[in-house]
Amino acid sequence: MFLYNTLTSRKEKFEPLEPGRVRMYVCGPTTYDFIHVGNARPLVVFDVLRRYLEHKGYQVFYVMNFTDIDDKIIRRSQEEGVPFLSVADRYIGEFFKDADALKVKRASLYPRVSQHLLEIIEAIEGLIQKGYAYVSQGDVYFSVEKFPSYGKLSKRTLEEMKAGARVEVSEAKRHPLDFALWKRAEPSEPSWRSPWGWGRPGWHIECSTMALKYLGPELDIHGGGADLIFPHHENEIAQAEALTGRPFARFWLHNGFITINREKMSKSLGNFFLVREVTSRFPPVALRFFLLSTHYRSPLDFDEEGFLAGVKGWERLRNTWFWLREVLERPRSEDDGGQSLLSRAQASYREFVEAMDDDLNTPRAIAVLHDLAREVNAFLQERPAKTPGVEKAAEIFHLMAEEVLGLLPLPGREGDSHLVEKLLEILIQIRQEARQKKDWATADSIRERLQALGIILQDTPQGTRWRTVFTPEGKWGED
Predict the structure, then answer these.
(1) Which of 297, 243, 284 has the alpha carbon at shortest distance from 406?
(2) Could you read off the pLDDT of 115-161 as tens digits, one per residue?
(3) Is there a single domain that holds both residue 344 and residue 395?
(4) Do the Cβ atoms of 128 and 140 come closer than 8 Å?
């Protein structure tokens, strides 16, 4: 398996520090609001990476943090007149609702900044003792000039960063790019006691401290959005390596931006779609499909035409799975039918692995799935029988589509409810009886009313099949 390492700017063969075990850290959300689609992309991308590593036999210890001490959270708490941790708790709960809807597996651990103040203070003390940090007017800063390789992730020198960056001008700093490890307390803001007075931690030291605590001095994979390369991940490297004297992470992986009309999606610009808004109108797994339909390192423009095309692409895979599952519920035929389909599925799996091993090429993997879906549909059209070959082909389809990519419908969601299926079977039977009685008005009425709900009936020599299609309620972007 080869992954693109931002640190070295090339694809490298992935080998964890400890055979069979992967230590992975991904920067999580700042919990002051609902997550938007741009926030969802790293959630889905690194979920697929974790799933695929586990499929390859690795034991993955996956840590994603919650930033629950931040200016935005404090500002929201002051606006609402509630404790800042109440705001964080509320949006952590909402985060899990959105992540669960997108079928993101729970991380091994979700550490919170508010629960690690002692460890953060100890890390800052260690940096001061080693000469990498200094106290100034109640604040503590990291001295970037003391860390010779500062800029190795973003590939920029201190001079280039100083010229191109918007940095906070402060007489307390020795260098304009020095960044805060500890901020002195401001009136009416939450604060904690430290050796340098009351205050709170800076953003960058939070992630470094939690990653080192739970994953050790050297991580296998550190991930996040491309917007975090500088300054956040650059600063994480400086802090962690200054403390331990060891490489902080072997592989740095970054997903590309999601844009709206070619402009980065962000709350500060006001050009964003909340995951909650999108999934209230579209199947949540269709959004997951859309996020995986473009390579993770490439930018992805979120527009109506592209997203609806993604919904249709997901529906084709879903309907193939529905048909396979319908066939698998029939009595088993013991003949050797389905061997040709099995051979094609096995070939598809090899192509799928080749795509995923090439820097997590999910667009190619999805294309392989679509090719197999066409083969499945053509085969079942001719012989919809439950044979050993069909069963094994279905296992391979499920492994790729669900176990690795997580693209099949959730039980009880998006038309996948067992109860809904049984009710549809009753309606189909009533319609069939009406047709036998030549009661065409009733038969046509059932077909048309189901079609209005997005359920399409297909009369075949083997009986009536059903499938669903997406029928949006309202136009794109409307309330």
Answers:
(1) 284
(2) 999 999 999 999 999 999 999 999 999 999 999 999 999 999 998 88
(3) yes
(4) yes
Kind and range of the H or E element at 59? strand 59-64
pLDDT tens string 405-442: 999 986 554 444 444 666 778 888 899 898 889 999 99
Cis amide bond preceding 231, omega within 30: yes
Query: Which structural domain range is residue 436 located in?
Result: 417-479
pTM: 0.86
Domain edge (last residue) among 396, 411, 426: 411
Q: Are 34 and 94 in contact (CB under 8 A)?
A: yes
Number of independent structural domains in the chain: 2
Please name the amino acid found at residue 17. L
Are 402 and 422 in a shared domain?
no
Shared-domain flag, residues 379 and 430: no
The pLDDT assigned to 417 comes to 45
- 141 token code pair: 């800063």
Residue found under tokens 């006001």: 270
End position of a domain, from candidates 364, 387, 411: 411
**Secondary structure of residue 175 in the 3-state scheme:** coil
CATH of the domain at 321: 1.20.120.640
197-204 long-range contacts, Cβ below 8 Å, gap at least 24? Answer: 197/138, 199/138, 199/139, 200/69, 201/69, 201/113, 201/117, 201/120, 201/121, 201/124, 203/67, 203/70, 203/232, 204/142, 204/179, 204/231, 204/232, 204/235, 204/236, 204/239
